Amino acid sequence: MKLTDRILQNWRIAKARPFIPSGARILDVGSADGVLFQRIKDARDGSMGIDPTLAASTQVGRIQLVAGCFPQDLPDVEPFDVITMLATLEHFPPAQYEILKQGCARFLRPGGKLIITVPSAAVDRILHVLKWLRLIDGMSLEEHHGYEVSRTPAIFSEEFFVLRRHATFQLGLNNLFVFERRQNGKIYVAS
User: Fold this and answer.
1) Contact at 8 Å (CB) between 89 and 151?
2) Domains in the chain: how many in total?
3) Cβ neighbours of residue 98 under 8 Å, at least 6 residues apart?
4) Is residue 32 included in any domain, yes or no?
5) What are the tens digits of pLDDT across the range 62-116?
6) Which CATH number characterizes residue 148's domain?
7) What is the pLDDT of residues 106-164, one digit of tens each?
8) Does the residue 55 lie in any domain?
9) Using CA atoms, how far apart are residues 21 and 36, in angstroms rounded to an integer?
């Protein structure tokens, strides 16, 4: 990962951080090498990350990193206080939005926070240029599925979630969404 990739990654974490309570039990979907947990050192025991790019499941300090896809490869664990998906949602194809929503509802406790950052449409073109100039590694650009930011509230429907905040950052090129898990609503349990 190049310096520019790390700067952008750290910027996303900094935007999400104010919405993560101290001592929260966190699930980081798209965790890569667990950098979120390196920046948020007070995550509660039982926090974990999941990422399909990991070669194998591993333990980083007291944080378990699971090699696999969310939600189907996540072990059967108690719901988390916070789920983060930083620069991850655009990697899910539309056919997986329903299972993604159901998984977030299943693995997030009522009242918990779902924190998402997702780039605006223009970012893909900018990232391709930066990759061509070798200023970034590109972080799986080929997996972007032409994501439309405006779809985000509909994906995480009012059946399970309430949108608490939407803001842009990085000169409007990135979006922050903070949802809260409703107290009621059905929960899908994978069989």
Assistant:
1) no
2) 1
3) none
4) no
5) 999 999 999 999 999 999 999 999 999 988 989 999 999 999 999 999 999 999 9
6) 3.40.50.150
7) 999 999 999 999 988 765 665 656 666 666 665 554 454 567 899 999 999 889 999 99
8) no
9) 14
